[in-house]
Design a protein that fits this description.
Helices cover 30% and strands 23% of the residues. By secondary structure, the chain is α/β, with parallel strands linked by helices. The protein has a domain of 79 residues. An eight-stranded mixed beta sheet has the order 6-9-10-3-11-12-14-13, with helices on both faces. The longest helix has 18 residues. It is globular and about 70 Å long. The two termini are 42 Å apart.
């Protein structure tokens, strides 16, 4: 694990972010009051079960929320210069947002096969991004230089025979090579913030280890801040400095990775950690599971969203009020009545 960055000013500040999807059946609160900071060169892991709002958070930062979804509250402050820019106030298709997206804030999507165009070579798609954003001495660079930069990027991310692979289509590459090509595209303009949305989900374990090692090396080389979105706590233990644990669009717990793994304070975090397979487990023993299932988004429970599945439930309190996020120390907080009786306003 690289040393924890010591920058005093966050690169990105998410404050009370709320994203809703209004449909005929009702309104889904996909993200419900999310707040966290990302510092330069820091890796922030966002974890939780499928459907907890991780990917919607990523799309909100990039202003890629599709109708009927929309950002209904909060701020996303990105520090480009001395004065932070509130990304929620920028038009999604406006000039400034298009300049930031890809150049300053880049994305490694969950499924590269769906992200790449099947009718254009992977090289052409990366060259297009470089031509759009990169400048040399204030002037646009030429196609030949952009192609040379793409070959060098392919070499950096460990793609063999980059001079030939640059002219391949995505469907001609293996899953691991597609993921490496997508990482090359994300890093093509040397972004200050990289969002990796489940970048190891669709690949085998051996390739996953190679991709994680590659991301660590590239993050160290380019000093890029990373938001790493995953449901795999084992990956978070290897990659992250800071962890945000989400459930039904809300933060259950957040803090430095060592504190989260060695002294979890929320029952949900403890349940997630217990469900990780261990080499010390007895043979033929069933893995611990979290009781119950994730509630339907149109039928959210009252009170604490996790209380129907919680082993430490206080029914007279947890079922009727939503616990406020309570600070346990510097950059450490938990949303649970076990630690504070303070509730959010009704």
């Amino acid at each position: 694990m690289p040393p924890i960055p010591t920058a005093t000013e966050p690169l990105l500040q998410v404050r009370d972010l709320r994203v809703s999807f209004r449909m005929d059946e009702g309104t889904v609160r996909a993200v419900d009051g999310l707040s966290f900071d990302v510092f330069p060169s820091q890796v922030v892991g966002i974890v939780g079960e499928s459907g907890c709002g991780k990917s919607v958070t990523m799309r909100a930062i990039l202003q890629l929320i599709d109708p009927p979804g929309r950002i209904t509250g909060g701020e996303i402050l990105y520090r480009q210069g001395a004065t932070p820019i509130d990304l929620t106030r920028l038009p999604p298709r406006g000039r400034l947002m298009r300049e930031l997206r890809g150049a300053e804030i880049a994305l490694i999507p969950q499924e590269p096969m769906a992200a790449f165009s099947p009718v254009h070579t992977v090289g052409e798609q990366i060259i297009e991004a470089i031509l759009l954003h990169e400048r040399k001495d204030g002037r646009p660079i030429g196609r030949a230089q952009a192609r040379a930069m793409t070959v060098e990027l392919f070499r950096d991310v460990g793609i063999s025979m980059p001079e030939q692979r640059i002219d391949a289509y995505s469907w001609q590459l293996s899953g691991g090579l597609r993921q490496r090509a997508m990482i090359a595209m994300a890093l093509s303009c040397k972004p200050r913030l990289l969002i990796a949305d489940e970048p190891t989900t669709a690949i085998d374990v051996t390739t996953q280890a190679q991709i994680l090692a590659l991301l660590r090396a590239l993050q160290h080389k380019y000093q890029t801040a990373i938001i790493f979105i995953t449901h795999d706590l084992g990956v978070i233990a290897q990659m992250a400095h800071y962890v945000v644990v989400m459930y039904l669009g809300r933060i259950m717990e957040q803090g430095p990775v060592d504190d989260i793994f060695h002294a979890p304070q929320h029952p949900y975090t403890r349940a997630l950690l217990r469900s990780i397979p261990s080499l010390q487990s007895e043979m033929r023993t069933a893995l611990p599971v979290i009781a119950g299932t994730l509630p339907h988004p149109f039928n959210r429970p009252s009170g604490c969203p996790f209380h129907p599945r919680c082993e430490d439930i206080m029914r007279d309190r947890c079922a009727t009020a939503v616990p406020a996020l309570h600070a346990l120390g510097p950059r450490r907080a938990v949303s649970c009545f076990l630690h504070s009786d303070q509730a959010e306003p009704a």
